[in-house]
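Dataset card, provenance and construction

Sequences and ligand SMILES were collected as paired inputs. For each pair, a complete structure of the chain with the small molecule in place was predicted and serialized as structure tokens. The example below shows a pair involving 2-acetamido-2-deoxy-beta-D-glucopyranose. Curators did not alter the output after generation; any descriptive sentences attached to a record were derived from the structure itself.
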Amino acid sequence: MRLLLSLFVLVVVIHCKTKEEWKSRSVYQLLTDRFATSQGKSTSCNLGNYCGGDYKGMIQQLDYIQNLGFDAIWITPVVDNYDGGYHGYWARDMYGVNRNFGSADDLKALVNACHQRDIWVMVDVVANHMGNTNLNFNQNNPFNQSSHYHDWCDITDNDFNSHNLYNIERCRLAGLADLNQDNQFVTEQLLQWIKWLVQEFKFDGIRIDTLMMVKIDFWYKFSEAAGVYTVGEVFDGDMNFLKQFVGPVDALLNYPLFYTARDVFLHWRDMNTFENYYNSLTNSWGKQNIQYAGNFNDNHDNARFLNDQVSGYIPDEVFLSDKPHLTFSAIKKLQFKAITAFCLTSVGIPMIYYGSEQLYAGGNDPQNREVLWGNLDQSSEMYKFIQAINNARKTTNAGSQDQIQRYSDSEIYAFTRGTLFAAFSSKYDRQVVKTITYHPYAEGTTLCNIFYPTTDCIKVASGKFTLYLNYGEVKIFIPK
Ligand SMILES: *[C@@H]1O[C@H](CO)[C@@H](O)[C@H](O)[C@H]1NC(C)=O
């Protein structure tokens, strides 16, 4: 008995969060320097440098994240950085913490405060490069020898466009010192480091930067050493190119979905584009692997969806003069709600970029890395929208259930996950009406739209129900 008990304790203590367990989570991606401050820093600052966000500030604002319905966060790399590395991608000492965000104890206090609320913490990590852009490696720890790095060459746009992995793996990204993982010391140290980092701070998952820039065999070892859910970034929308990276890590950030969904909702494309997308992705990655992919509406590397340069599009053939309520900004908001709801409900793990809930609209890096403090408004329209979806996702346990397509044509795409039914349309100029006959609900079931739970309910009768979507709205039904 005592042996059993101590075994049990041991299992609890060393229990690591697997990709299966992550499936039901909903992740809030924040930039540590931009989310919350304990130092009373100004909300207006130079977005190209430190603005003063910190771990203590984050701890004070966990209600904001939890009430929004998220049960995981993804934070900026925590390691010591060269000057100006507010984003965390310019590492100097892999075993030191970035003091701009607080001490190592502050970071531990953050993880602990999150765990007390059952919020999991995913840390961003870099194993491709260090933060110096010269040939002086003296300050880098533990990689302070030139033999730890590739000889200098620069990755070109042409290398990225032609998927020239030979150059992408050994040359510098933005001039940053490129670690040579063929060097045994480098690989051994990186594996030792990631194991230490995860265990020291009790992280529940890692987001891996610049995955395509290191040889694939390294990532098998790195992922195993981390021992937690690993989701990698390959900044590319070509699913067949990405395929080779599915397997070495648990999952990829879902750039194919990002580009597909942006195009569909922004450009009023036919909704059955999603049917084609899922067929292709299933063929390419395998059905199993899609479940762990990170679905994102926006992130820190792309102009936000609501940014003027990429929104406000209305097709030439659509005349809106008879629909005065459909202004550019109204359509933009409908589109953004749609892509955000799609990421939160569709198969994969939602990773929603901070500021979405306040309709942030920043342009290219660093304009898309706005300060959030001063805007931590829990009553905004988009905050409530996201909150409603996260709550429905949790009460129906949708994240752990298969996605089944229920309707697909040019006007509507709909699916269920368990008892949650989600329907989307990119036809912002009209009402669309469909009869849904393929569904999992028993006769007489009342389904209510989570956004209007008391006024928009429908009943399953004669094996079917009627679905109305007005002007590109999203509806999510759950049984009453
Ligand atoms: C590199 O780091 C090692 C271990 O910390 C140290 O012993 C050595 O002196 C360093 N070398 C240089 C050139 O800084």
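Derived descriptions for this record:
The first strand starts at residue 27 and ends at 29.
Residues 138, 144 surround 2-acetamido-2-deoxy-beta-D-glucopyranose (CB under 6 Å).
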